[in-house]
TrEMBL record:
This is HNH endonuclease. The keyword RNA-binding does not apply. The keyword Zinc-finger does not apply. Keywords: Endonuclease, Hydrolase, Nuclease. Residues 334-384 form the HNH nuclease domain. It comes from the Bacteria. InterPro entries: HNH, HNH_nuc. One of its GO terms (molecular function) is endonuclease activity.
């Protein structure tokens, strides 16, 4: 979906050039080695990865410090000093803005508060994940108390040598209890406010539904499902216990008598060719991704579901969305709907978060129009980040039928291009006569599937 510029190797970029050259040499390590040497290579590469993570953390913290100083020197209010920095880190690491924020938080703690942990990471005694565990488990401590844990755990490399992830975590938490037991109590009280329910795609057209709950509630929910599923299974039900638990969860949350009659709209986009059984291109479920067309056809025959069709118009060669049939005449609503169908997920490279905002690529303040060509679907974090000092977004001059694209420029001058994904391609022109009720040349079908 995204095209990004390569790193520019200039004479002033000697460190970057050396790093890229070193990476190239590592990738060329011979394969005709003894098993002893292979094991040593594996260990050495772990040291290299840890040292790289430490250097990356230092560079991240330094970039954050520099950006804040630059904005302070410009006289910007303090509340604007940090805006967009997490997104900038995410783009640099080819990651989402959300993960960029986590990378930034991790780096600041290591560099500013836990120098011994940083040193253990730099020399390969700690992996990046185990350093992350220590940072995570000392959250809530004062700067001074965190420094005490840092010295206790990481001033001597032998302290954590040979310990597993869980043992490192247990050691860190034990140190926190000794130094400030109330910090754990405060964290537990705060954590209750973080309770939530989320979903994310899983393989084979499934999805994970996760609930973060206080432990007594989570155990109660699971125990209740275990108890009731055992009773149903004992009555001769042919489903497995896990299947019954899953169905009970759906039925009790939705209030329905069966787990299949879910009263929620599901937007599915597939080509007219696939709908008619002559094509094999996958369908697209909003908020999930590609699914087999045969599965959608099966959904259409579900007696518990009501199906509505809406025509979208796409270029048959490129899959670029060009128009949409809609009963609504509200201009902003129509543009937002088309933008979501076109972009599917946040348009920032490597983000992947759901679309929350319809954004002007070229801002209204800079002369941008409220048009489909000047729109982009973004998550909340990415939309706020692009408004920060030093960020610009420039729409490309797309020709008719081309996929929508625009360029993002960060405060460091790095360029990233965002190109909208292609929709399922409709019937080619020479096959259009088999759909005698449609006369336009560009088509695909959106199915609104609901109980």
């Amino acid at each position: 979906m995204f095209d990004t510029g390569e790193i520019e190797e200039t004479s002033s970029n000697t460190e970057v050039a050396w790093l890229l050259q070193t990476a190239g040499q590592i990738a060329k390590i011979r394969r005709d080695l003894t098993d002893t040497t292979r094991a040593d290579v594996i260990t050495a590469l772990e040291v290299v990865k840890s040292a790289s993570a430490a250097t990356q953390a230092v560079a991240t913290a330094d970039l954050h410090t520099s950006r804040r100083a630059e904005r302070a020197a410009k006289g910007l209010p303090k509340r604007q000093w940090d805006i967009g920095v997490a997104s900038e880190i995410g783009l640099a690491r080819r990651d989402s803005a959300n993960k960029g924020g986590r990378h930034l938080g991790f780096a600041r703690v290591l560099v500013d508060e836990m120098p011994n942990t940083l040193a253990r990471l730099a020399c390969g005694d700690l992996s990046e994940w185990r350093a992350t565990v220590i940072v995570r488990d000392t959250f809530g401590l004062s700067r001074e108390d965190r420094a005490l844990v840092d010295r206790e755990l990481c001033s001597d490399p032998a302290t954590l040598r040979g310990k597993s992830d869980s043992q490192v975590s247990a050691t860190a938490r034990a140190a926190v209890v000794r130094i400030d037991a109330e910090a754990l109590v405060r964290r537990a009280s705060k954590a209750v406010g973080d309770r939530r329910v989320t979903s994310r795609p899983a393989p084979d057209t499934m999805a994970y539904l996760s609930a973060l709950l206080p432990v007594k509630q989570a155990v109660c929910v699971h125990a209740t499902l275990m108890r009731d599923s055992a009773a149903i299974l004992g009555a001769g039900d042919e489903r497995t216990k896990s299947q019954i638990m899953a169905d009970l969860l759906v039925e009790r949350v939705t209030g329905l008598s069966t787990a299949t009659a879910v009263p929620v709209t599901v937007n599915v986009v597939l080509s007219d060719e696939a709908l008619l059984g002559t094509g094999s291109e996958p369908a697209e479920v909003e908020g999930y991704g590609p699914v087999p067309t045969d599965l959608v056809i099966r959904w259409l025959h579900d007696d518990d579901a009501k199906n509505e069709l809406r025509r979208l118009y796409a270029n048959p060669e490129t899959g670029a969305l060009t128009a949409m049939e809609s009963k609504s005449r509200g201009f902003p609503t129509g543009i937002l709907r088309m933008t979501k169908f076109r972009d599917k997920i946040c348009r920032t490279p490597w983000c992947g978060a759901p679309i929350r905002h319809g954004d002007h690529v070229r801002s209204v303040a800079n002369g941008g129009d409220t048009t489909f060509d000047n729109s982009a679907g973004l998550c909340e974090a990415c939309n706020y980040a692009k408004e920060a000092d030093g960020w610009t977004t420039t729409p490309d001059k797309n020709q008719s039928g081309e996929l929508h694209s625009y360029r993002i420029t960060t405060p460091t001058g790095h360029h990233f291009r965002s190109t909208a994904p292609a929709l399922p391609k409709p019937l080619p022109h020479h096959n259009i006569d088999i759909v005698d009720s449609w006369s336009v040349e560009d088509k695909l079908v959106q199915i609104i599937w609901a109980a």
